[in-house]
Design goal:
Helices cover 33% and strands 16% of the residues. It is of the alpha/beta class. It has a 7-stranded parallel beta sheet with strand order 1-10-9-6-2-3-5. The longest helix is centred in the N-terminal third of the chain and has 18 residues, at 9-26. The two termini are 18 Å apart. Bound molecules: 2-phosphoglycolic acid. 2-phosphoglycolic acid (PGA) binds next to loops.
């Protein structure tokens, strides 16, 4: 695992955008796994800027999205379809048909989840997966006790996640209780993974993910099993890491590594 600590959210987002851009420059038809939530907003803004100012090209890119609320129509302002359109897709040149977001309104979730997994494989697998982390240590909506081998499925959200996400809704009662989410096992099959986190409220989850035992109680800890994971976090999110000095030492020494 590589851990990059930045002083500001802007810097964190810029580092993440450079990783995405590098992936697309090396492989213009890359498959990206994308996240929603407040964490990747700066990344998406930077990608839009890179598209508009530097011609970063998304015309051959395919995206798969981590999760979606069950019961929200695509046009609902809190649906992840709406979020991705508003914050990224309508500003870049990705073909509409290359975007895959789990359906929160299908009448057959089991079949949909199977199809979604199959589509990822048919598209060649995810080259770069972008993740956030929940205050309960979840990646996507893989709440505590999710199997570390889980696949795309329906998940019941934890009370903590509902409370955390209530800020986007009029009241906590409006937050959907169920979500459709890629599994931990699905995520671990990505070629490369970056996890972004900022803010003091994420520091405990980040420390457990990086330095704690691998456990289904903190599903982000499963990333320790992946050979190519990059954590890009701000100083506040890094503030509970025991080995922070060492991670910064590694970054400092990296340019001279043989
Ligand atoms: P946030 O959510 O980016 O809105 O903090 C992250 C997550 O729950 O994974």
């Amino acid at each position: 695992m590589e851990i990059i600590v930045k002083d500001t959210v802007e810097e964190m987002s810029q580092v993440a955008a450079r990783v995405v851009a590098k992936t697309l420059n090396a492989k213009p038809d890359a498959v990206l796994g994308l996240a929603t939530g407040s964490t990747p907003l700066g990344l998406y803004q930077e990608l839009v800027r890179m598209h508009q100012a530097e011609g970063l090209d998304f015309s051959q890119v395919t995206t798969f999205h981590l999760d979606a609320y069950v019961g929200l129509k695509q046009k609902h302002p809190q649906s992840y379809h709406y979020f991705m359109d508003e914050n990224l897709f309508r500003h870049i040149n990705i073909p509409h048909q290359n975007v895959y977001i789990p359906s929160g309104t299908t009448d057959n979730y089991e079949a949909f989840c199977k199809w979604y997994e199959q589509r990822i494989v048919e598209c060649g697998g995810i080259d770069l997966q972008v993740l956030g982390i929940g205050t309960d240590g979840h990646i996507a909506f893989n709440e505590p006790s999710s199997s570390l081998g889980s696949r795309t499925r329906i998940k019941t959200l934890a009370k903590q996640t509902i409370d955390d996400n209530a800020r986007f809704f009029e009241s906590p009662d409006e937050v959907p209780v169920y979500a459709i989410t890629m599994g931990v096992g699905t995520i671990l099959e990505a070629e490369r993974i970056i996890l972004l986190a900022h803010g003091k409220h994420k520091s405990d989850a980040v420390a457990k993910a990086i330095e704690g035992p691998v456990t289904s109680m903190i599903t982000a800890s499963a990333l320790q099993l992946h050979p190519d994971v990059l954590f890009i976090i701000d100083r506040e999110a890094a503030s509970s890491l025991d080995m922070l000095e060492y991670y910064e030492w590694i970054q400092d020494k990296m340019p001279d590594a043989p």
